[in-house]
Batch of 2 targets.
Target 1
Amino acid sequence: MGILFAVAPVVVWMTIARTRPIGFAIGGTLLAAAGLLISVQRGWIDAPRPDAHLVFTALAPLLIACGAGLEGRHENSPSPEWASRRNGAMGFLGMQFILTLVAGLLYALMISEGSDAPPSKALPALPPGISMVDEGTSCGSGGCWRVATVTSEDGLSRPEIIRELGLQQESCRSSGWLLDWRDVCVGARDNGRNVTIYAGWGY
């Protein structure tokens, strides 16, 4: 489904393109953008998926409209059949954008409740010699966190493990660009028996 969503603007452009130079230029750009979106969907590129979908569906119709305008400067007046295809294509892309915008706003409302924990990938990467014992989520009045217990295979003490992880202080980074305005904050705690690392949402 996600792949069909990404390649839909390319198919739309193929149905209305009238010139080879501009057609290939716009089509190639749309295909490259679709490849980037699919990479985000598959997790090959670390980027917020809702924001990537919104940006893609907003820019694709603008690019297609620019391509159609450039072709109009170098071609004769289009036939009524082409005008009908163009109107249908832009209507389809406009509907796709509206649906994405509505879904994005619903997503923004959902995450504002703070009832979800960050994904596992939000936890910091572990250096060699430190391994994860268990992982789970914990919730309280301040929201939910992703929590993992780590241990040293080299006999490091708990403070040394925290220094090795570089988590002496909590650090935060942005989670998204547009729809997800939360920060992801990661840190480590020494509870007297072991070291736990956590990732939680910052507001």
Target 2
Amino acid sequence: MSFPSSKKITRILGAELDKLVTLPSIWLTLTGTSILNLLLAAAFTSVGLQGAAGTQSILNIGLASMRYLQAGFIILGILATCSEYNGGQIRTTLTTIPWRGVQLSTKHLALAIITIPAAFIMAASGVLYTFTMMRDTAVVIEIDTMIKTLLGATGYLTCTTLLSAAIGALFRRTTPALVVLLGYYFVVSPLTRDFPPSIRKYFPDTAGYYMYMPPSTDEINFLTPMQGAGISMLWTLIFITVAIVLFRKRDA
């Protein structure tokens, strides 16, 4: 089987992007996640105003919802790859696009195109709300620090989404993929907090934490933002590669 030309790859990317854009569950997930993010930002900001606000950073409070916000992006990634298996649409897709590796790769790329602006807007909206409410009481932050932090948060949410999409492609069913990923991020990972930091820092969610939280003088920073990004990207690429290899070998 010949490899598709660059023009065909562009068309495949356009087709995958069109499928995601026209999928109602994608927009319902993004809308619900955005609303939840604002509600959580308001709640954390309210707590900050009632507490020792003068010692808190706007970024720390504005991004406190990230732990819960990632759930929406996990769901987004799983829906992107599992939706085609509902009703057997994947067979139609593979009839039209016989290059399996290219098809799944471009799906991840199309998902990244949608995720990056959505993740940035949500992360920025939380920080902006906190800044608006606490600008007279919280610790002042520099613009370049804010931009780097928001880019790190965007990168982490994007990696989480793509990793979730790869897991969805492995399971091919929404429910098992959700159980595994939500179980890890919200049950297993919190239970590993007593693990030595030298081990925990290599977990995808822990490494991702260092991508967007500014270095603190009050605690040991085991990873730099770049190191955290490198580990998170490595986890993502590993799962995408495994998903592509298995996708090429097994039946639709």
